[in-house]
Each structure stands twice: as structure tokens, then as C-alpha cells.
UniProtKB/TrEMBL annotation:
Domain C2H2-type: 63-91
Function: Deubiquitinase with endodeubiquitinase activity that specifically interacts with and cleaves 'Lys-63'-linked long polyubiquitin chains. Shows only weak activity against 'Lys-11' and 'Lys-48'-linked chains. Plays an important role in genome stability pathways, functioning to prevent spontaneous DNA damage and also promote cellular survival in response to exogenous DNA damage. Modulates the ubiquitination status of replication protein A (RPA) complex proteins in response to replication stress.
SMART domains, alphabetized: ZnF_C2H2 (SM00355)
Subunit field text: Interacts with RPA1 and RPA2.
Enzyme Commission number, as recorded: 3.4.19.12
Gene behind this protein: ZUP1
Organism: Monodelphis domestica
Protein name: Zinc finger-containing ubiquitin peptidase 1
GO terms of molecular function: cysteine-type deubiquitinase activity; zinc ion binding
Length: 635
């Protein structure tokens, strides 16, 4: 079908109008029809409607080209127009620019591929029909000031656009002509109403496909309003809106990422670029998140390692605190009472004895004097007799001045060796007249009293580093003391002391022969005499090694030139020490005193030896020197 016939109506009441030629009518219709629709002005303004009250209806069959909208007079002219203007191979779809098909195929394509656009046109036609069906009924006087214009229902737009359309469904099947009158002002209002409805309809359709934010679905650009977004999409992405023609053997391109079918390579390329950009941003974000996650994991691992290390350090520190009596479990008094209660529960002590010993302990603590229950005296004198009469294997022996042995009691068992060795050393010094001035009004103190004396020495300024390590507190604790604390205490009593550190072995198999030589020189003082037993005027020596301390009371020189130390160990029970008071001392009892070179294999030994009395100035100088405690090192 080449064209659709349209009916055009014109009104005229003069014979001169009837004499107008058909061509002139067509020409004037083509020139003035649009002007009638826009300006609402009558075509024939030179005729007065008042002079011609009767209207004649003239019907002319016209043909309008569906492609370009041109109006021709006959079917033959329409064919000529199509051949000259629209060759079959140049028919182009007004929606997707499809070409190369004939007219019937193009009609089928529009109905099949662009159904939505045609549906929109139908909706608008219905709106137009509703607006046009109600004629404006005014008085005859008002109608005399306006010309009437009748429009056939078959007048259509040349393309599928939103142009204004007027239809009249009141005509009969015999194509009888009807006329409808439209005032110019009503026609203008009708156009404005229809345009507003068209705009509203377009915005509704856009809102259905777009979100509340006007963002371009192709490039992501955000426009200030939906109208600008629609313009942007139509101008910038018109090729993406094209609908592929059906029935043609054109290649399709599938997106390798999401599987979207594209009609040409350019669309596919732009589509994949969008994927790549999205992947890039996601990759950057993911990389940043991975880096942050790695940093968090590393920080968490560091915290766990630090917490684990801190936990281990705390456990080790607690073990050391418990080992050295700084765990807050009480001191001498608490341990004494606790162990006596255990003895009572085990049946080793009667309740009466428990209360008696408790009273004696409280009295001893109140006066600060040792109760003497673990003290053994007279051993040096007994040993002198023994070496005089027996000990044929001994070539010579040197003994210290008289000294008492003190054994650890229930109150200090496991940690009180340093305090017991100080009691042994002090018992010897109290027998020596050279030290009476320094030790006047002093008796053998109990262990809590010794702790108080060391704290007083710290308060004077001795060994601040050692005091800090023990939290400046000994009373009420089971803290161990060593050579440094003994040195500070003796120096605070104005006793001239010497501390020597044998920091590493000096003989084979980890032995310390230099230690034995030093002690021999200390007691012998280089004087060789003919006496087998030499009772020296020198006090015993405090000997310290890791975990324990003892008191050296003398040294033997055997006939084979080997040296053997004579040692009081505070861990030796009093009943064993009392065996040395017998007239005939058995060799088995002496073994607990002997220490040969091969018996002392600790890595380090320290000794504290008293060599005289200090003046006040010397005491102050040594106190100042103890701020950074140093010892004489051998070798």
C-alpha cells in the first residue's frame, strides 16, 4: 500500500470560491494548514462570515506519504513520489535507522520492533479524542466571530512522533462529511494541555526506568533533572538505544563477562570498558581492603605475640618472686606458725609444745633476738682438739676464731641461709675484741631483725640498686639475701669488708682453684710456722653461690698438697653438728665439713671477708662507692 487517503474539508459560500481551481486549493491547503493549527487564523481572511451565513462542504481525497508526510493529489502521484524520493533500498526506519528493506517489510519492522513507541502514540491519540469529542457550545453570536474547521479522523502524522492529532469518530460509514467548530483560543488550550500530558507521560516512563537520582545508566553521569538526563542519553548514547533489526543475518556480539548480547562491536567495546573500569575501582578498593586486612592481622599477631611474651615473662617473674620469697606469702612469722600447725596435724608436735614454741617465737620477735634453738656452739674448739690428736693425713690446718653454727628453722627453711650465715659470722665477730666498739649493744639478732637492719642500711644510702630490686623491703617477706646485702649490712656497722667475685672457673672441669688459694692466703697471711693447727684471729668468710650460701671456718692442707675447705652449712641439722662436739670425732662426721676443689663447681662464687674497722669517713666513702656496686674480680 503506497499511501492512505485523507479527507480535507474546506468551507466556502461564494461562487468565486467554487471557481477556484483544484490545484490552487491544494497549494493553499499545503501552505496554510499548519498555520491554521498553530495560529487559529482562518484561511480566507478576506471573506466576512457575516455576509455568507451558509457554509458549503467540499470533500477532496488526498494522499499523504507515510515516510516524509508529503501530500499528493492522486495515487499515481504518490507512486511517482515514492520512486523519485524514497527508493526502496533507501527506506529508513524513523526509530532505529534501519534501511535496505521495502515498505511492507518496514511496516512489519515498526510493528514488531517498535511496539512501545506505537503504543505511546496510541495512548496520546486516545487523549486527543477525549479532548476533541466535546465541542465548544457557545452562543450563535460568539460563533459568528470564528471560522469553523473540520478535520478528518484519518489525518495522521507523517512519522511516529508526538505531533498533535485530531480525529472525529462521529462520521457515518458512507463517509458523510461532518464538521466541527474549534475556536482559536480553545485550540491553543488544547495544544498546551496535550503537550503537558505528553511531557508528563515521558517523565513517567523515564521515572520507571531510572532511580530517584538522575544518573546515566551507560556512563554514570549525573544530571540535575530527568529532562536533562533524557537529552543526554538521546544525544550521547543514541547508538546504544538502537534496536537490532529482526530477520537480518547480522552478527551478534556476546559480552565475555556478563553475557550481554550487543548488536555491533562498538557497543560491545564500550560495554566491556565499563566492566573494566568497574573492575579497576573494585580492584583498587579490594587491594586497599586487603592491605588494611593484612595490617590488622599483623597488628593482631604482634599483640598476641606481645601478650604471649608478656604472659611468659609474668609467669617467669612470678616464679622468680616465689623462688626468692617475694610472692607476698608472708615472712618468717607466718611460715613458722604454718609449719608448726602442720607438725601438729601430722602428730609430730604436741599442742602444748606448739603453744610454748609459739610464745617463745613471739617473745624473740618482740626483742629482736634469736631464741638460740638452732644454735650449736663449741665446734671450733672441738675441731682444734681433733686436729691436734688425730687427722694424720692432714699436714696443716687453719681455723677461724670461734664461731657458732646456726641451722634453719621451720620459719626460714628454704630461704634463710643468708641470714643464718650472717648470724654465724656475727657470732665470731662478737668474740673478737677488735670489733666490740662497732658491735656494742648487739646480740645475735633474729631473722626479722636482720631484715630490719638491712633496710636501715638501704635507708642510709647503701646499695640503692639492690634495694630497688627487692622493692626496698625485706620485713614480712621471704626474700633471699646475698653477698651484696651482707656487705652493705657489715659496712653500715663500720666493719671493713672485702667482696671478691670469682666470676668464672679457673681450673679444669669447672673448678675454682684460685678460690682455694685466696682463702689459704687469707688465713695464713704468709706466715709459716711449725704448728700443725693454727687458730687464726680472723673471722670466718661468707661464701655465696647461686641458690645457696655457706660459711668458711678454715682450710686444710693435706700431705699431698691438696687443699680442703672447712664449711658450716646452715642446711645441716643441729643434731648432726652436735656430733662434732664429741671427744672422738668420727671421720664420717667431718665429711659434712669438707669441701675439696672438685666439690665446688658452680659457675660463680662470691666471698665477703671482714678485715677490720672503718672510720666514719671511710664508711661514708664506701657508702658513696656502693651507689654503683662493684666487686673485686678474680681472675
Amino acid at each position: 500500500m503506497l499511501g492512505k487517503p485523507r479527507s480535507v474539508f474546506d468551507a466556502c459560500s461564494l461562487p468565486a470560491l467554487l471557481s477556484l481551481t483544484f490545484q490552487s486549493l491544494i497549494h493553499r491547503f499545503q501552505c496554510d494548514f499548519s498555520k491554521v493549527m498553530q495560529d487559529s487564523e482562518p484561511i480566507f481572511s478576506d471573506f466576512s462570515p457575516a455576509l455568507f451565513p451558509v457554509y458549503y462542504e467540499v470533500s477532496v481525497i488526498m494522499f499523504t506519504c507515510d515516510i516524509c508526510g508529503e501530500i499528493v493529489a492522486s495515487e499515481q502521484d504518490m507512486k511517482t513520489h515514492l520512486l523519485l524520493t524514497h527508493m526502496e533500498n533507501e527506506v529508513v526506519c524513523p526509530f532505529c535507522k534501519l534501511s535496505g528493506v521495502n515498505y511492507d517489510e518496514m511496516c512489519f519492522h515498526i510493528e514488531a520492533a517498535h511496539f512501545e513507541q506505537n503504543e505511546n502514540e496510541r495512548v496520546m491519540e486516545k487523549v486527543n479524542q477525549v479532548q476533541c469529542r466535546t465541542p465548544d457550545r457557545k452562543t450563535e453570536k460568539e460563533n459568528s466571530h470564528h471560522y469553523k474547521m473540520e478535520v478528518s479522523e484519518d489525518v495522521y502524522s507523517a512519522c511516529a512522533s508526538n505531533d498533535l492529532k485530531f480525529t472525529d469518530h462521529s462520521h457515518s460509514k458512507d463517509t458523510s462529511l461532518k464538521r466541527k467548530a474549534f475556536h482559536s483560543e480553545n485550540l491553543t488550550e488544547l495544544r498546551e494541555l496535550q503537550e503537558n500530558r505528553l511531557n508528563l507521560y515521558d517523565l513517567t516512563e523515564i521515572n520507571k526506568s531510572l532511580s530517584s537520582i538522575p544518573e546515566c545508566p551507560f556512563c554514570g553521569k549525573i544530571e540535575p533533572c530527568n529532562e536533562d538526563l533524557e537529552t543526554h542519553v538521546k544525544t550521547k548514547h543514541a547508538n546504544l538505544l538502537d534496536t537490532p533489526a529482526e530477520g537480518r543475518n547480522q552478527p551478534f556480539y556476546e559480552c565475555p563477562i556478563c553475557g550481554l548480547i550487543c548488536t555491533n562491536y562498538q557497543i560491545l567495546h564500550e560495554h566491556i570498558d565499563l566492566h573494566l573500569e568497574e573492575s579497576h575501582f573494585e580492584g583498587v578498593s579490594k587491594g586497599s581492603s586487603d592491605l588494611e586486612l593484612a595490617r590488622q592481622l599483623q597488628q593482631e599477631e604482634d599483640r598476641n605475640r606481645m601478650s604471649e611474651g608478656s604472659r611468659q615473662e609474668i609467669e617467669e617473674f612470678q616464679k622468680l618472686q616465689k623462688q626468692y620469697g617475694l610472692d607476698g606469702s608472708g615472712g618468717y612469722k607466718q611460715q613458722q606458725l604454718r609449719n608448726m600447725e602442720i607438725e601438729v596435724r601430722r602428730g609430730r608436735m604436741q599442742p602444748i609444745e606448739f603453744h610454748k614454741r609459739k610464745a617463745d617465737m613471739l617473745e624473740s620477735l618482740a626483742f629482736g633476738i634469736d631464741d638460740g634453738k638452732t644454735r650449736t656452739s663449741g665446734i671450733i674448739e672441738s675441731l682444734h682438739r681433733h686436729y691436734q690428736n688425730e687427722a694424720r693425713e692432714v699436714r696443716r690446718v687453719w681455723l677461724s676464731t670461734g664461731v657458732d653454727h646456726f641451722y634453719s628453722s621451720l620459719g626460714d627453711k628454704g630461704w634463710g641461709c643468708g641470714y643464718r650465715n650472717f648470724q654465724m659470722l656475727l657470732s665470731s665477730l662478737l668474740r673478737n675484741d677488735s670489733y666490740k666498739d662497732c658491735l656494742k649493744d648487739i646480740s645475735i639478732p633474729c631473722i626479722p631483725k636482720i631484715q630490719s637492719m638491712i633496710e636501715d642500711a638501704w635507708k642510709e644510702g647503701f646499695d640503692p640498686q639492690g634495694a630497688s630490686q627487692l622493692n626496698n623491703r625485706l620485713q614480712g617477706t621471704k626474700a633471699w639475701i646475698g653477698a651484696c646485702e651482707i656487705y652493705s649490712l657489715l659496712t653500715s656497722l663500720r666493719l671493713k669488708c672485702r667482696i671478691v667475685d670469682f666470676h668464672k672457673p679457673t681450673g679444669p672441669l669447672g673448678t675454682h682453684p684460685r678460690l682455694f688459694e685466696w682463702i689459704l692466703n687469707y688465713y695464713s697471711s704468709g706466715r709459716e710456722g711449725g704448728l700443725k693447727v693454727v687458730c687464726s684471729s680472723k673471722p670466718p668468710i661468707y661464701l655465696q653461690h647461686q641458690g645457696h650460701s655457706r660459711t668458711i671456718i678454715g682450710i686444710e692442707e693435706r700431705k699431698n698438697r691438696t687443699l680442703c675447705l672447712l664449711i658450716f652449712d646452715p642446711g645441716c641439722p643441729s643434731r648432726e653438728m652436735q656430733k662434732l662436739l664429741k671427744q672422738d670425732i668420727e671421720s664420717t662426721s667431718l665429711k659434712q665439713l669438707w669441701r675439696f676443689v672438685g666439690n665446688l663447681k658452680h659457675k660463680q662464687y662470691q666471698i665477703v671477708a671482714v678485715e677490720g674497722v672503718l672510720s666514719s669517713e671511710e664508711k661514708a666513702a664506701r657508702m658513696k662507692a656502693s651507689q654503683i656496686f662493684t666487686a673485686e674480680r678474680i681472675p
